[in-house]
Amino acid sequence: xxxxxxxxxxxxxxxxxxxxxxxxxxxxxxxxxxxxxxxxxxxxxxxxxxxxxxxxxxxxxxxxxxxxxxxxxxxxxxxxxxxxxxxxxxxxxxxxxxxxxxxxxxxxxxxxxxxxxxxxxxxxxxxxxxxxxxxxxxxxxxxxxxxxxxxxxxxxxxxxxxxxxxxxxxxxxxxxxxxxxxxxxxxxxxxxxxxxxxxxxxxxxxxxxxxxxxxxxxxxxxxxxxxxxxxxxxxxxxxxxxxxxxxxxxxxxxxxxxxxxxxxxxxxxxxx
Length: 272
What we know:
alpha+beta; 5-stranded mixed beta sheet; globular; 5-stranded antiparallel beta sheet
């Protein structure tokens, strides 16, 4: 930085000539590039978020690797599998090399406590002093509790490994199911495969299977039943991975971090 302006490192200027220093002026306001795309903004909590022009190499199915410049948080030395990516809507991924800090029994105990607290809250909201709470709001909480119970069943299956997927929704588990993902290799039954999305495309052979992911918050009751039964009955010895939380970036935010938009050099390298 110099006189309130960010000057990209020369290597970044050479690699991305469309990013000129004038794009990074006035860091306390939202800036746009020549196409009107945001480059920098400040969140409600004062955190500076970098944005940059699209980096074409980024796509679903690839791996991001944190650079040495990423220090002191969950992403230190992280490797991330990109599950979804669009410049217009952002990026979704999961950290693949971070195990849960708590043992399974402790995680399950904390999960049951969270569900008990949610049930108590729901009962109070259904009482005579429910105020302006709508039936839709009550239904949403009841559904979240039901899915939370399914999540606890899933994590305790022997063929399921549990890992940290990222900071988004991490503290909500087993609630907040929309933030949690399951990575698996099942191509059958058809309803399960239809609900799943391709995560990593391989040869499709038993030795090199395609990998799929599920957004657990989107599963209907029938699919939950199919999924649990499939994992319990599978004799292949393969494990599915339950990712608690996820790693997400807004539109062009990841591009800004790759281009070094916060002045500390690029935050991410990649493996195609």
